Amino acid sequence: MTQQLDTTATSSLPAAQPATATRSLTVGIVGLGYVGLPTAIAFSAGGAHVVGVDVSAQRLDAIRSLRVDLSPGDLDGLREVSQSNSLTLTDDIELLAAVDAIVICVPTPVDDHLTPDLTALAGACRGVVRVARPGQLIVLTSTSYVGTTDELLVKPLTDRGLLVGVDVFVAFSPERIDPGNIAFAHDSVPRVVGGTTSECTRRAADLLRRTTRQVHVVSSTKAAELTKLYENTFRAVNIALVNEIADVSTELSVPITEVIDAAATKPYGFMPFAPGPGVGGHCIPCDPHYLLWQLRSKRVAMPLVESAMRGIAERPARIVARVREELADHGIALRGAHVAIVGVAYKPGVEDVRESPALEIIGRLAELGVEVSYVDPYVPVIQVDGHRLVAMTPPELLLRRSVDLAVLHTRHPQLTLDWLDTVPIVLDATYRAADLDHRVLV
Using one digit for the tens of pLDDT, what is the confidence trace for 180-234? Predict the structure, then answer.
């Protein structure tokens, strides 16, 4: 089904032809999730007509009705797109045959065995290869292992008889969108790009300059792919490190936040990271595994990264262990205890629960016989181990029965914590709730 954002009429695009001063560039975006939708809005703001393709009818309906998890600035941008009719929403990938450029923004998770799950990406690339026509530029942004662009785009296009760099143009430019972070506007974040040929790189850089003020060119698609993996592996290693330092600080009775803030005064050689209950989303918990998976086939080890990823994976279990310790220290039986999780989204200010540590924490506590409730104004319902949990407000929670212990997991903006004064034990997994006098740290 295809329609403009604010109508129900079928929409068609002009026949494929070079963009001119009298005809705007047309850009197809494949995947309208946490990366694709802001990307579509950015290209629309840059003067392009955008064709947004997504396989989920529910997601398309949510976008049409503006019921999507976006920053305030992007939500305003979506409203403007709605009024200007510069975005066509569709589940029909065939419409991409008429656009000038295609940008692929689909998720790349890992499965239960920490193996790359390329189902969505491979499917999207097959569809794009099938409809691609001479003159088009195709830019992959989804994080994956080194060589993905060649395997899923360049080779299949060549097999179709399209010479990359002459007939069609292919590049990789890793996405750099941080959901919920309003400190960095889309156009202020530099983009890295590497093409299959120099002409591919030039065309892709020109396209990206419509959405950002700075484009950094690298020598190849593989260099761009590894850049993204390095960025998120860097973050994973440092998050694992700061969690260990936080545990050490607790043992030594030294405030970890004071240590981090003091170290951050050094103007060189240090970057602050914050400890927490674990990591979520589809970046830190997933992306380094694409690199580790690829290297295993080459019999190459990365012991530091492997250790960091184990530490990250074990963090929710550490939270559960601390819950057990605190309940035992207060003489409260584990089975039947009432524990409230405060915030279940994987980060503040978003409704995203993908890979959220809260889900594992809740599941582990429930297996131990703990009664678990949660408070989160951004997330009305969650699914944990096949069970549906509905968010409660603090008054509802306290009216139901007393809370034995609360885990402060995600501190959303404007989320009041006054009610926690009535909870005997507050385990602060954010390490930043110094205003709670009776809190304990992980």
Answer: 777 888 888 999 999 999 999 999 999 999 999 999 999 999 999 999 999 999 9
Q: How far is CA 40 from the centre of its chain?
A: 16
Q: Are 157 and 121 spatial neighbours (Cβ–Cβ below 8 Å)?
A: no
Q: What is the pTM of this model?
A: 0.91
Angle formed at CA 396 by CA 395 and CA 398, multiple of 5 degrees: 65
Give the pLDDT score at 7.
31
CA distance 341 to 362: 8
Contact 405, 392 (CB under 8 A): no
Non-local (6+) Cβ contacts of 139 within 8 A are 101, 102, 103, 104, 170, 171, 172, 173, 193, 204, 207, 208
Residues in Cβ contact with 266 at an 8 Å cutoff, skipping those fewer than 6 apart: none
Instruction: Report which of 206, 172, 212, 217 is spatially closest to residue 190, judged by C-alpha positions.
Output: 212
Tens digits of residue pLDDT in 383-404? 999 999 999 999 998 888 899 9
Please name each of the domains of the chain with its CATH number.
2-218 (3.40.50.720), 229-308 (1.10.1040.10), 315-441 (3.40.50.720)
Total residues found in the chain within this entry? 442
Closest CA to 273 of 308, 241, 233, 230: 241
Q: From the candidates 105, 125, 200, 283, which is the catalytic residue?
A: 283
CA distance 108 to 428: 31
Taking the C-alpha atoms of residue 153 and residue 129, their distance in angstroms, rounded to an integer, is 7
Q: Say whether 105 is catalytic.
A: no
Q: Which residues contact 5 (CB under 8 A, 6 or more apart)?
A: 63, 64, 78, 81, 82, 85, 87, 88, 89
Q: What are phi and psi of 173, to 5 degrees?
A: -140, 100
**CA-to-CA separations, 263 to 173, 267, 300, 308, 441, in angstroms, rounded:** 33, 9, 34, 21, 20
pLDDT in tens, 21-30: 445 899 999 9
Hey, what are 98's tokens?
A: 């008429």
Phi, psi of 402 (to 5 degrees): -65, 150
Place of tokens 């212990």: 405
Q: pLDDT tens, 58-78?
A: 999 999 999 998 888 889 999
To 5 degrees, how large is the angle CA 331–CA 336–CA 337? 50
